[in-house]
Amino acid sequence: MRTLLLGLAAAAAIALPARAETVTVAVTAIVEHPALDACRDGIRDGLAAAGYKDGENLKFIYESAQGNPATAAQIARQFVGEQPAVIVPISTPSAQAVAAATKEIPTIFTAVTDPVAAELVASIDKPGGNVTGLSDMSPLADHLALVKEITPAVKTLGVIYNPGETNSVALVARLKELAPAAGIEVVESTATKSADVQAAARALVGKVEALYVPTDNTVVSALEAIVAVAEQNKLPFYTADTDSVARGAMASIGFNYYDVGKQAAEMVVRVLKGEKPAEMAVEFANGTDLVVNKKAAAAMGVTLPEAVIARASKVVE
Amino acid sequence: MTSIAFWGAVELGLVYAFVGIGVYLAFRILDFPDLTVDGSFPLGAGVAAVLITSGVNPWLASLAAMVAGAMAGLVTATLNVRFKILHLLASILTMIALFSVNLRVMGRPNIAIITQETVLTPFYSLGIPDYYVRPAFVGVLVAVAVFLVARFLSSDFGLAMRATGANQRMARANGIDTGVHVYTGMALSNALVGLAGALFAQTNGFADVTSGLGTIVVGLAAVIVGETLLPSRYIALALVGCVLGSVVYRIAVQLALSADVIGLKASDLNLATAVLVTIALVLPRLRGRGSA
């Protein structure tokens, strides 16, 4: 009997190694908006799935800087003072504030597009410090492949973006590197404010055979203006974010931010189990959600291949 | 509140003390409600970050940030003095224009300088923890600024500037060139705000175009909290009050951040901060009434 109990205790000790104590994970975002909130919820649920439950063996702290980088700096100091096991900053300014506040506490950032340019990590493969994390870089190769699959005849792709947004500038530069391999030429058109988006789309008519919009806040906010131009001129219109498809774009492959949060949680768990951020390569968000819009396709003079519709995780009628 | 969080709040309060002093100069000395600061803060941060990343000495970069801030102040002053545009509107025009200017200066909305050499780098290797080094360093700069601004305001030129703000018509009748004093005061005010931006970028490792949001509110809060906590007719003490007010404001934010235990949510932060600042403003008054 005694050996049995001891055996059970040993088994419990093996199965639940870190359960005896509570670990603290501190999460902060620059601002509260649907995508970033979904990301935060993904982190909490991802941690729960790995056995770290909020209120039981996990203390989950969350603070929002309410859009103010100075407050983000204060939250970073606050977290460092509380000495959590891991800090998880969501967005670039929050991550930079945390990275400046501590050189010791493991930090797993998420929803940062270009962590090398933001000086959060020395390189993607070898971060080198106490900071690593998850980049929400768009799956641009998948986007080009999708363009080729649905509209194989497209040779020139018109890209509309705001040159004032860091993420967009980085994305378009990368897109231009990848496009030649897919046999596509990228033609740029810029809009610095949402009122200029329609003119930027019109400027591409006659020069390109399809339109594409990256995850650009300015352009996405004026998406309907491009939809109108695309439909009038029978131009297939692709976007980088899946939400825009319901608003009239034709097709997109992307990730949702809840899954981004869950993926970040996996990295947090690895740190909790003893891995060092310095050795953990930066990961990229997995984008697999294919969303297509049949009505938009018809208006743009495109017949969606059956294979694409069958594979789509969501079809807008 | 942990000591790291406390010293972090003090550090940020001291950085924003330059904004407090700048706003005091415009708002109290010149009687000029100046929203330019929302643009000159990120301008200072951006100019310093761009120069630092291109290898310029960080002290020179900070000085350039002050010059850039001064230029912004001069634009507002020109619109008001030369072209007779209402002071508030003149400053709003400069502020919105500066957003585009900042994007041009920086070339992108966010520049990281975490790994670059800053004015603080030599002090990090003294063996004292970073969270003490930063407030101590910024505190010394603030003390120097308070001393210099107080000296300036008690000089003949400074007295004429105070007369300009107190009663412009009277000042002019006494032979003061009020235009020159508005130009100088606005340049000095925004130079200090530009320096605050440069120090923010260097203590936090990044410059961001959005960091100017609400700078005027923080500056005004510093001035008014300072006046309540340290009511004085002496300029030097009023300036110390601005510093004190700025630090108290940040400690209020820090308390609001720690207020989760009483059931507040992250989104309640701004409200909690406002309530705490209100309490700081009202308490001395209640006490005063009690004793009277």
Q: Please, could you describe this protein's structure?
A:
The complex is a heterodimer of chains A (317) and B (292). Chain A is α/β, with parallel strands linked by helices and 317 residues long. Chain A is built from 13 helices and 13 strands. Chain A has helices spanning 2-15, 34-49, 69-82, 92-101, 140-150, 166-178, 197-202, 217-220, 223-232, 243-246, 257-272, 294-299, 306-311, and strands at residues 23-29, 58-64, 86-90, 107-112, 131-135, 156-161, 185-190, 210-213, 237-239, 251-254, 283-284, 289-293, 314-316. The model of chain A is unreliable at 10-19 (pLDDT under 50). Chain B has 292 residues and is mainly α. In chain B, 76% of the residues lie in helices and 2% in strands. Chain B contains twelve helices and two strands, in the order ααααβαααααβααα. Chain B has helices at 3-29, 37-53, 58-81, 87-106, 121-124, 130-153, 156-166, 168-173, 178-204, 215-229, 235-257, 269-291, and strands at 110-112, 206-208. In chain B, strands 1-2 form a two-stranded antiparallel sheet. The model of chain B has no long low-confidence stretch (mean pLDDT 91). Chain A binds chain B through residues 32, 61-64, 66-71, 73-78, 80-82, 92-93, 96-97, 99-101, 103, 117-120, 164-166, 169, and chain B through 1-9, 11-12, 16, 103, 108-110, 112-115, 130-131, 200, 203-206, 208, 210-211, 213-214, 218, 250, 253-254, 257-258, 260, 266-267, 269-270.
Structural class of chain A: alpha/beta
Amount of helix of chain A? 40-55%
Could you give a short account of the major beta sheet of chain A? 6 strands, parallel
Helical proportion of chain B, percent range: over 70%
Distance between the termini of chain A: 65 Å
Number of strands of chain B: 2
The side-by-side strand order for the widest beta sheet of chain A comes to: 2-1-3-4-5-11
Given as residue ranges, the uncertain stretches of chain A (5+ residues, pLDDT < 50) are 10-19
Instruction: Classify the beta-strand content of chain A into a percent band.
Output: 15-25%
Order of helices and strands of chain B: HHHHEHHHHHEHHH
Biggest sheet character of chain B: 2 strands, antiparallel
User: Low-confidence parts of chain B, pLDDT < 50 over ≥5 residues?
Assistant: none
State Rg of chain B: 19 Å
Going by helix content, strand content and strand pairing, the class of chain B is mainly alpha
Number of helices of chain A: 13
Total helical segments of chain B: 12
Morphology of chain B: globular
Subunit organisation of the chains = heterodimer
Mean pLDDT metric of chain B:
91
